UniProtKB/TrEMBL annotation:
Protein name: Zinc ribbon domain-containing protein
Organism: Lawsonibacter faecis
Domain of life: Bacteria
Parts forming coiled coils: none
Keyword Membrane annotated: yes
Keywords for the protein's UniProt record, in alphabetical order: Membrane, Transmembrane, Transmembrane helix
Lineage: Bacteria, Bacillati, Bacillota, Clostridia, Eubacteriales
């Protein structure tokens, strides 16, 4: 059994140099075994990168085939109901979510979010077509989708880069959730009642404010902030 004279690592009989520090092996009493196979590969192997265009084409073909098959099946199975629109809308939404960002890795956050919101809006619109209820889409579903997109965009821009602390991030997320749910009830009241009568959203906003105030205090007081970091490993 041989050992490296420099770092002391155990050497295999086939090693001509230390695998750790690359010190040459010189042992006249035990020459290097050049016949036996080495215990580890000597050449680096690299897995070739998958072509983004090929992967995008594969995803597109899979989603298109699923949508096409369901559309054809709908012609023979319950043709009075456009149930295939659910599958077609989901396929379109998934395509918009995955294929453009795959082909454009440097896509800006705002651009990507616009694609995502449009995809969700198209999916919900196709559902409204099947349910013969485009009115609720334009007056309720679309405003809620746009409000959710605005909330996500705000969080994405503010929290981008990971420069904010965990406490600040949690505070912003809670505030965005409260704002979103407050807007949801606003649009619901306008659509169903024609007027605004806030009830449950005020409870949600009150809870969010009750959670935000202690977080802001902890964030502002250094001793409390350090204690929270130690206890919760932040």
């Amino acid at each position: 059994m041989s050992y490296c004279v420099n770092c002391g690592v155990e050497l295999d009989a086939t090693a001509s140099a230390c695998p750790l520090c690359h010190t040459p092996v010189v042992n006249p009493s035990a020459p290097v075994d050049t016949v036996s196979p080495r215990p580890f590969p000597t050449q680096k192997g690299e897995v070739p990168e998958v072509s983004k265009w090929e992967l995008a084409l594969l995803l597109s073909a899979m989603l298109a085939s699923a949508a096409l098959c369901c559309g054809i099946l709908n012609l023979f199975l319950h043709p009075e109901r456009a149930w295939s629109l659910y599958v077609i809308g989901a396929a379109v939404m998934l395509w918009v979510w995955f294929v453009p960002p795959l082909l454009m890795r440097g896509m800006h956050l705002c651009t990507r979010l616009v694609f995502d919101v449009v995809a969700v809006a198209i999916y919900v619109y196709l559902i409204s077509v099947d349910l013969s209820g485009s009115a609720w889409f334009w007056h309720l579903a679309l405003p809620v989708i746009l409000l959710g997109g605005a909330a996500v965009l705000f969080l994405g821009l503010v929290l981008r880069g990971g420069k904010r602390s965990i406490l600040s991030s949690i505070t912003l997320v809670i505030g965005a959730v409260g704002f979103f749910l407050f807007g949801v009830e606003l649009f619901l009241d306008w659509y169903l009642l024609g007027t605004w009568e806030p009830t449950w959203s005020l409870v949600v906003v009150t809870i969010c404010v009750a959670l935000i105030i202690p977080l802001v205090i902890v964030r502002r007081v250094p001793s409390l902030r350090e204690e929270v970091r130690r206890r919760f490993h932040m």
